[in-house]
Amino acid sequence: MASQETEIDEFYSCKFAPNGEVVFVGGKRKSRDIWNDDEDDNLCLPGEIKVFDVLSSKVVLRLEGHMEEILQIKLVSFQEKQYAVSCGQDGLVIRWQLSNDFRYGVHEARVCVRV
After folding, report:
1. pTM recorded for the entire structure
2. DSSP-derived secondary structure letter, 38
3. Where are the alpha helices (DSSP H) in the chain?
4. List of long-range contacts for 58-64, beta carbons under 8 Å, 24+ apart
5. Which of 63, 70, 89, 100 is the most exposed place for a label (fewest CB within 10 A)?
6. In whole angstroms, what is the distance from residue 111 CA to residue 91 CA?
7. How many CB atoms are closer than 10 A to CB 70?
8. CATH architecture classification, 7-112
């Protein structure tokens, strides 16, 4: 049976939330259907962080904003607020404010734009 997925995910970074209920993953997304002749590989798509519920394995949140693959994710608690900070091959560092249970995005701020 052929795969019904239209994208290929290659995860480079994985961080469990402190509550252990969700896991944040990020990396490279590729189109399964579009070939990039210049790179002799599937076409790369804008990167996103996927947040999976550990028990159900379902995606509960997608954090979009990177134009290329995500290289690193860090989870931070500061002044009773929860954040994910990501950096990507595109040169962006993005801070994502999250709900206290890490399942909802509250606010996005680009900390550094293409250094």
Report:
1. 0.84
2. T
3. none
4. 60/22, 60/103, 61/22, 61/102, 61/103, 61/104, 61/105, 63/94, 63/96, 63/105, 63/108
5. 100
6. 11
7. 29
8. 7 Propeller (2.130)
Tokens of 79: 């002044």
Q: What tokens does 63 get?
A: 């954090």
The per-residue pLDDT string of the chain (115 residues; one tens digit each, 9 = 90 and over) reads 455 778 889 999 999 999 999 999 999 999 888 888 988 888 888 889 999 999 999 999 999 999 999 999 999 999 999 999 999 999 999 999 999 998 888 777 777 655 4
List the one residue out of 33, 40, 37, 32 whose CA is nearest residue 8: 32
Burial state string for 24-61 with b = 16 or more CB within 10 A and e = fewer than 16: bbbbbbbeeeeeeeeeeebebbebbbbbbeeeeeeeeb
Is residue 17 classed as helix, strand or coil in its secondary structure? Answer: coil
* Cβ neighbours for 67, distance < 8 A, ≥ 6 positions apart: 46, 47, 88, 90, 92
